[in-house]
């Protein structure tokens, strides 16, 4: 970056003081280029978001992917890692995503490129067996994150201190189990979650739960809503009930799920407060949102 021509040659006396004061006011931003705010938040990635950028089918990062054979891992069933292609932006936060009962990775694969293109490493997994229960799915999400950060081909692209979990149905119930087991997780997003355990006082991970108003397999009245209510009231937590939706709405590309998931992951995995505007105040009921609950402003 060029220096200003009128102050570049000599810095003495009053001019030196003025230069120093000016540099202090503008910080390093004029020296590191447009959009660079690394000095403010070392975990911030990508340009400032807009409503349309978080609703878009793809975010600003080109995405690569690599398959992980179930034969090459232990503790889960393999999967696909989606990651920003660039190595110019340092490391990224990462999430693992579990499918539901009887389902394969393909049932949640749309989240891979959708979230990775916003600046995350996303591991959509298969489970050991499609009949595994939520507690096992939680353990498998953690095994997948451990593989991702310790052994995978993209391990050097991942910040092992900024991890999260997502999952559908029993995988959503598994996301709560994973957070309960590993409080260092930075974000959890259960999608139309199912679990026999309704109480989550142990969770310390900021958690966004999606319910579906027409879910007859994991009715919100006995799953998503009590899960939300039985998280600690001191926790950063939210509940969004999708309008005109079913248990299987999270199995295909969905802009409401994407935009609030991106915002939650950015806010709590990247500490990126530029996304707070999409979470607080809570979204009002609309054609896509039946109901919303949560604490605002956030406390962590
Ligand atoms: O993962 C799921 O779809 C859980 C819903 C379910 O089928 O539970 C019945 C045991
Ligand atoms: Zn419990």
Automatic annotation (TrEMBL):
InterPro entries xref list: AB_hydrolase_fold, FrsA_esterase, PET_hydrolase/cutinase-like, TAT_signal
PET hydrolase/cutinase-like domain sequence ranges: 38-297
Signal sequence, renumbered to the chain: 1-38
Transmembrane segments: none
Alphabetized SUPFAM superfamilies for the sequence: alpha/beta-Hydrolases (SSF53474)
Keywords in alphabetical order: Hydrolase, Signal
Family, similarity comment: Belongs to the AB hydrolase superfamily.
Protein name: Lipase
Protein source organism: Streptomyces prasinosporus
């Amino acid at each position: 970056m060029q220096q200003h021509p009128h102050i570049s040659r000599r810095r003495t006396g009053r001019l030196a003081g003025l230069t120093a004061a000016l540099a202090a006011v503008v910080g390093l931003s004029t020296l590191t280029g447009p959009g660079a705010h690394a000095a403010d938040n070392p975990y911030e990635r990508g340009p400032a978001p807009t409503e349309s950028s978080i609703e878009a089918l793809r975010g600003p990062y080109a995405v690569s992917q690599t398959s992980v054979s179930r034969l090459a891992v232990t503790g889960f069933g393999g999967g696909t890692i989606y990651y920003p292609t660039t190595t110019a932006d340092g490391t990224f936060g990462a999430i693992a995503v579990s499918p539901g009962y009887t389902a394969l990775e393909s049932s949640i694969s749309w989240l891979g490129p959708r979230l990775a293109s916003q600046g995350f490493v996303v591991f959509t997994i298969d489970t050991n067996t499609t009949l595994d229960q939520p507690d096992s799915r939680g353990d498998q999400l953690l095994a997948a994150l451990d593989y991702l950060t310790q052994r995978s081909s993209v391990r050097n692209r991942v910040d092992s201190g900024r991890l999260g979990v997502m999952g559908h149905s029993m995988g959503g119930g598994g996301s709560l189990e994973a957070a309960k087991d590993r409080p260092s997780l930075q974000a959890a997003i259960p999608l139309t979650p199912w679990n026999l355990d309704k109480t989550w006082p142990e969770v310390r991970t900021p958690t966004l739960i999606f319910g579906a108003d027409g879910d007859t397999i994991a009715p919100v009245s006995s799953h998503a809503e009590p899960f939300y209510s039985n998280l600690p009231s001191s926790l950063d937590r939210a509940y969004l009930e999708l309008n005109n939706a079913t248990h299987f709405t999270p199995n295909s590309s969905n802009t409401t799920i994407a935009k609030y998931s991106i915002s939650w992951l950015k806010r709590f995995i990247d500490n990126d407060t530029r996304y707070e505007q999409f979470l607080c105040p809570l979204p009002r009921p609309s054609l896509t949102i039946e109901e919303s609950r949560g604490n605002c402003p956030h406390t962590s």
